[in-house]
């Protein structure tokens, strides 16, 4: 079972896990275990599964449950695991969320449903969600309007923090979003608004600045989790220049991973190269690297790993 549920003080690096597939497109059970071991071996604080990177929308309900159960069993309580549970209907969402919690999840991640960008509608949805889930299921609110098409203001996030005790964490991915992050951080943990944990996504592209703005860590899927771990550790220790030096060493490949509509294939190719998964396949419709892409990526990997060796201490 999970070591603990996520809460308002949760911090560190919650790696967003890919979902590995075989060459025929089936969920790869052997690579799933290997990937969990890879992430844990690089010192992550927690894991998040069945998010956008995890291609959750391309899995059948049975596959999603099977994958969640296998990951949670493999982790075996060593770190908390958040399970993506966004769904069109609250009944299906509640059923899957309760299944995940019963299997040992530490909380669930939910994004707002597509629809008009009206703050009252977003508030109403999360009120219904929390009522449906019950008080014992911690919620990470995913704010990713570039994908969901639903922007959420800092004021609404703070209102939900006050009104819905289950919402204990924000996955911050709005872009540009640094001012918004600052507004949420300074507006929470006050006399009238509880503190909310803030972990940041977007591949980690702005991680040093987000940490300086008060973020508690990262929740993203960069294929070099050791970079995220070291940047967060160094920054929290007051070694801000060290954190930025490590980040800068990985920046070219991190940026390459963040290409819209293509980055998932890159990330899986890096994970395959590093021995974490056996196959880099994405489910159709999905991106695929060609021979020129592969050669370009291998050159970036080689240059990145050589640059990292030149850091004062290895990351």
UniProtKB/TrEMBL annotation:
Signal peptide annotation: none
UniProt KW keywords: Lyase
Top-level taxonomic group: Bacteria
Gene3D superfamilies (UniProt xref): Aldolase class I
UniProt-listed InterPro entries: Aldolase_TIM, DapA-like
Keyword Iron: no
Recorded family membership: Belongs to the DapA family.
Alphabetized PANTHER family for the sequence: 4-HYDROXY-2-OXOGLUTARATE ALDOLASE, MITOCHONDRIAL (PTHR12128:SF66), DIHYDRODIPICOLINATE SYNTHASE (PTHR12128)
This protein's name: Dihydrodipicolinate synthase family protein
Organism the protein comes from: Jiella sonneratiae
């Amino acid at each position: 079972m999970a070591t603990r549920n996520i809460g308002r003080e949760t911090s560190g690096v919650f790696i967003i896990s890919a979902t590995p597939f075989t060459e025929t497109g089936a969920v790869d059970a052997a690579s799933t275990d290997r990937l969990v071991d890879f992430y844990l071996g690089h010192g992550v604080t927690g894991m998040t599964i069945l998010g956008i990177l995890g291609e959750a929308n391309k899995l059948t309900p049975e596959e999603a449950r099977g994958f969640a159960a296998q990951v949670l069993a493999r982790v075996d309580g060593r770190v908390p695991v958040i399970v993506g549970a966004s769904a069109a209907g609250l009944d299906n969402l509640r059923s899957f969320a309760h299944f995940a919690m019963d299997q040992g999840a530490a909380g669930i991640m939910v994004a707002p449903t597509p629809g008009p960008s009206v703050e009252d509608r977003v508030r109403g949805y999360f009120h219904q969600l929390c009522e449906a889930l019950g008080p014992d299921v911690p919620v990470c609110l995913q704010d990713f309007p570039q994908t969901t098409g639903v922007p959420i203001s800092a004021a609404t996030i703070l209102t939900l923090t006050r009104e819905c005790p289950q919402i204990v964490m924000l996955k911050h991915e709005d872009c540009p979003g640094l001012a918004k992050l600052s507004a949420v951080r300074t507006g929470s943990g006050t006399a009238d608004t509880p503190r909310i944990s803030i972990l940041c996504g977007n591949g980690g592209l702005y991680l040093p600045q987000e940490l300086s703005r008060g973020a508690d860590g990262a929740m993203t899927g960069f294929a070099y989790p050791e970079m995220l771990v070291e940047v967060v550790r160094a920054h929290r220790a007051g070694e801000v220049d060290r954190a930025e030096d490590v980040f800068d060493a990985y920046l070219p490949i991190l940026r390459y991973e963040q290409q819209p509509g293509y980055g998932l294939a890159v990330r899986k190719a890096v994970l395959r190269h590093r021995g974490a998964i056996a196959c880099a396949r994405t489910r159709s419709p999905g991106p695929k690297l060609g021979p020129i892409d592969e050669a370009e990526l291998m050159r970036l990997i080689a240059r990145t790993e050589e640059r990292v060796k030149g850091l004062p201490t290895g990351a």
